[in-house]
Write a structure and sequence with these properties.
2% strand, two-stranded antiparallel sheet, single chain, 237 residues, 10 helices
Length: 237
């Protein structure tokens, strides 16, 4: 799938999983998710759902932070054997989740910076930018991302779940790619066999643009209505 569909799937995936994990403990992480954690998790998951495509020089995430992400993309492409290889494996999702968890345990500031980067990537993937004016788009992206991250920080958002959210975002990316005609080598490096669906569609084809993307967008609206306590959140007159 294309970047915008992956980002949308990250938002939908996190919002959909909230009622399932709410009040439970998963791998030692307690999920007590308020509105701030739902918003933060949706954006983190959206950004993480683009991370596996760091192995492609033209992907949304590779272009997000200019020379920095392009350089990382070259390294990932070499390290993981090319596009849709190691970065599209279960091993990669586990590694990203573990690295993010280690980062969270190491430094609260590091987590805030990492969340900022993922939110910026998510916004880029969701299409918050202007193709004709890249500089303006980057400034707007940075300002919007900073504003949201500051608001989340001021609200005391708990990021103990961030490692699981990143791993989950990667898994959502794999699901999306497995239903396209290329599939994913999920058990790399044991095997390079690409696992796919018997019913698949072409990336950026009619099905993705006319069916998948609209359905994901509608799902976000419906889940927002269901998850957020709007009567408590909206101002009273």
């Amino acid at each position: 799938m294309m970047g915008h569909s992956h980002a949308l799937s990250g938002v939908v995936g996190w919002m959909a999983i909230v009622p399932v994990v709410q009040g439970t403990e998963v791998l030692g992480v307690r999920f007590d998710l308020g509105p701030a954690e739902i918003v933060a998790g949706s954006l983190v998951c959206a950004g993480a759902a683009l991370v596996p495509d760091l192995d492609h020089k033209s992907s949304t995430i590779t272009q997000t932070y200019g020379a920095v992400t392009r350089a990382i993309g070259v390294i990932f492409n070499w390290l993981f054997g090319g596009h849709r290889m190691g970065t599209h494996s279960l091993l990669f999702a586990v590694l990203m989740g573990a690295l993010t968890t280690a980062l969270a345990l190491w430094s609260d500031l590091a987590v805030q910076v990492f969340v900022f980067l993922l939110v910026g990537i998510a916004f880029n993937g969701l299409g918050f930018g202007m193709d004709k004016n890249k500089v303006a788009a980057e400034v707007i992206n940075a300002m919007g991302t900073a504003g949201i991250c500051i608001a989340l920080y001021a609200n005391g958002t708990n990021y103990t779940w961030v490692g699981l959210a990143v791993a989950f975002g990667c898994l959502l990316h794999f699901v999306g790619d497995c239903i396209t005609d290329m599939g994913c080598p999920l058990i790399w490096p044991i095997s390079k066999y690409r696992i796919g669906s018997p019913i698949s569609f072409k990336a950026d084809g009619v099905v993705e643009r006319k069916v998948v993307t609209p359905l994901l967008s509608i799902a976000i609206v419906l889940l927002s209505v269901y998850l957020f306590p709007w009567q408590e959140m909206l101002p009273k007159y």
